[in-house]
Amino acid sequence: MEQLLTERRNNRTKNLDQCSTIEIIQLMNEEEKTVDLAIKNQEKNIETVITEITKCLEQKGRLIYVGAGTSGRLGVLDAAECIPTFGVSKDQVIGVLAGGNKAFVEAIEGVEDDFDQGSIDLEALKISNKDIVIGIAASGRTPYVLGALNYAKEKNAQTVALACNKDSEIGRCAQLKIELDVGPEVLSGSTRLKSGTAQKKVLNMLSTISMIRIGKVYENLMVDVKATNKKLKRRAERILSTVGEISLEEAQQILSRTDYQLKLAIIMVKKNLGMTEAEQLLASANGFLRTALED
To answer: Where is the SIS domain (predicted)?
Structure first.
């Protein structure tokens, strides 16, 4: 364990307790620069993983994140945000956290060390060869994640390791790997810091770019947004008003007719079609709004 880069002492912060508040702020901010470099060095691997996620989603498979502690919480967070942002179902992008939902808000001792439970939790999801499972562990050696990845491989699912140490155990276990060398933490071993930042940024890329690739985005707009609250309804109205070059009042009226299905509303306005015709055109374009509008 002491050989892991994420567990080593950071020579630049050995006098952390003697620094002024502003000095610690500056140190932490400076140390975060290693995150972007670590990600840059893994861009090709990230691209490869995104390609595999896209294939999986196109085949109606699932994207499943698995992790413990901070790593697991980040996976759950990313999965949860995909639902309103991209209009996917809660069963299409899933976050699995060691210890279950309770572990999201409090630390549960020992759950990350349970290899068998990782397998059991994935078995409950009925993993198949259509799915892609991403094991997240800053250390790269968490038994719970290793158990999950091993089970996923047995079921012929695609497997990916996301770690913050090179030559990680989960990297050797998975078919694909992203290993982010962010260096020792400001606070020794506290992988919620640089490691957590790096993992979050990569997860943002994996989900966002995969969703772009399957047609969930038009230009830089979230046109499959699930308008489940007032804020998201207003966002949908602004998008329709902007793209369709109509007033917000008109946008609201049209979206009310489509039950806030934004893609349909945009096609209706831009192509001057009724809702049934817009549905048919969108279906023929496999859900890609740009393709439908250019038809």
So the answer is: 53-216
